[in-house]
UniProtKB/TrEMBL annotation:
InterPro entries: DctP_fam, TRAP_DctP, TRAP_DctP_sf. Transmembrane segments: none annotated. GO terms for cellular component: outer membrane-bounded periplasmic space. Keywords: Receptor, Signal, Transport. This is Tripartite ATP-independent transporter solute receptor, DctP family.
C-alpha cells in the first residue's frame, strides 16, 4: 500500500541520515612513518591504530602511511608536514624532526647515552619533559615515546675499530646536519640522503657504509647490498615520538585526547620492549648470514669518544645547554 511505502521511505531516510551523521562523526587521522610494519617502527604505529580502533569502537581511527609517502620520501619534511596539517599525526624519529626542533639533537650527540638505562632516564626524566615542551612550542603535540634503537655502523670495506678506519669512507647519513659533523670529525666522507635513496646507493656502491639500528639492518637485509662489516659502537640512540598536529588535537574531545595519549604510551612501551628483546636474535641472525661483527674494547671506545668531542662543543649550545645538563642529571644524578 502507499501508506506502507511512505513508512518505508521514512525509515530509509532516517537510517540514511543516521549513517551519514555517524560517518561524519567517525574520524580518520593520517599517521606518517618512515618504516613499514616489517620493522618494529611501523609495528608501533599499527599497534597504536589497533588500540585506538578497539577502544573507540571505530569512532576514531588511525590510518598509517608508511615509507614517508605523505612527504614524497623526504623524511626530514615530516615534522613540517605535521605542523602545517598536511598530515594529522606521526610516529617519527628524533633525527628526522631535528631540523625543525633543534632540541631533538640531544639524542644524536655521539656517545652521550651509553645504554638503554640512560635512554629511559632521559626520556622519562626532566630532559624528556623539556624535549616534549620544545615540540609542543612548535605546534605539535607529543604523546609518547618509542624506539628505533641504538645505531650501529656498517660498511663494505673492512672492520672498523678505530677512527682511522673511517678515513675517506663514503658514509650515507640521514639528512640532519649533526650527522654530517660527526662523520666529518671522524675523518669520513658523509653524504646526506633519505632512507628511500639509501639502499640503491649502497647497492651501486655509491656509498661505502651507513648507520642504523640492528632491526633495520636485519629486516632490510643490508648485508645483501655488500655491507659485510658491522661495528657495534652504540654511538647514539634513536627514540621515536608519537605526536599529533595541534589543530587536530584541539578539535578532539577530552575523551578522545585521553584515548590517543594512553594508546600512544601503551603502543610505545610495547614496541620499546619488543625492539630490545629482539636485538640478541637479530645480531645472531646477522652473524649467521656471514657479517663480520666488531665490538669495541674500552680503549677503542674512548678513541671514538675523543674524536667526536668537537661535535659536542659545536652542538650543545644549539641544543640548549640546559637540556643537555638536565639529561646528564637524569642519567647520572646531581
Ligand atoms: O633513514 C634512516 O636511517 C632511518 C630509517 O633510520 C630514519 O628514519 C632515521
Amino acid at each position: 500500500s502507499s501508506r506502507h511505502l511512505t513508512r518505508l521511505a521514512t525509515v530509509t531516510a532516517i537510517s540514511l541520515s543516521l549513517s551519514i551523521s555517524a560517518s561524519v562523526q567517525a574520524r580518520e587521522l593520517s599517521v606518517s612513518t618512515v618504516l613499514s610494519d616489517a620493522f618494529p617502527w611501523g609495528q608501533a604505529a599499527e599497534k597504536w591504530a589497533d588500540l585506538v580502533a578497539e577502544r573507540s569502537d571505530g569512532e576514531l581511527t588511525l590510518r598509517v602511511y608508511p615509507n614517508s609517502q605523505l612527504v614524497n620520501g623526504d623524511q626530514t619534511r615530516e615534522f613540517s608536514a605535521m605542523r602545517s596539517g598536511l598530515i594529522d599525526a606521526a610516529v617519527g624519529s628524533t633525527i628526522n624532526w631535528s631540523p625543525q626542533v633543534p632540541e631533538l639533537n640531544l639524542f644524536s650527540l655521539p656517545f652521550f647515552m651509553a645504554d638503554v638505562d640512560d635512554v629511559d632516564s632521559v626520556t622519562g626524566g626532566t630532559a624528556g619533559e623539556m624535549v616534549f615542551d620544545a615540540i609542543e612550542s612548535r605546534g605539535v603535540v607529543p604523546l609518547g615515546w618509542g624506539e628505533n634503537g641504538f645505531r650501529q655502523l656498517s660498511n663494505s670495506r673492512g672492520p672498523i675499530d678505530e677512527p682511522a678506519d673511517l678515513d675517506g669512507l663514503k658514509i650515507r647519513v640521514v639528512g640532519s646536519p649533526l650527522f654530517q659533523d660527526t662523520f666529518t670529525a671522524l675523518g669520513a666522507n658523509p653524504t646526506q640522503m633519505s632512507w628511500t635513496d639509501a639502499k640503491p646507493a649502497l647497492t651501486t656502491g655509491a656509498v661505502d657504509g651507513q648507520e642504523n639500528p640492528l632491526s633495520v639492518f636485519d629486516v632490510a637485509r643490508i648485508d645483501q647490498v655488500g655491507q659485510e662489516y658491522l661495528t657495534l659502537w652504540n654511538y647514539m640512540n634513536d627514540p621515536l615520538i608519537f605526536a599529533v598536529n595541534q589543530q587536530v588535537w584541539n578539535s578532539l574531545s577530552e575523551e578522545e585526547r585521553t584515548l590517543l595519549r594512553e594508546t600512544a604510551e601503551e603502543a610505545g612501551a610495547w614496541e620499546i620492549e619488543m625492539t630490545r628483546e629482539q636485538e640478541p636474535e637479530r645480531l645472531a641472525a646477522i652473524k649467521e648470514r656471514g657479517v663480520t661483527v666488531t665490538e669495541l674494547d674500552e680503549a677503542q671506545h674512548q678513541a671514538f669518544v675523543e674524536a667526536t668531542e668537537s661535535v659536542h662543543d659545536e652542538w650543545v649550545p644549539r641544543i640548549g645547554s640546559e637540556i643537555v645538563e638536565a639529561a646528564r642529571v637524569d642519567m647520572h644524578g646531581e
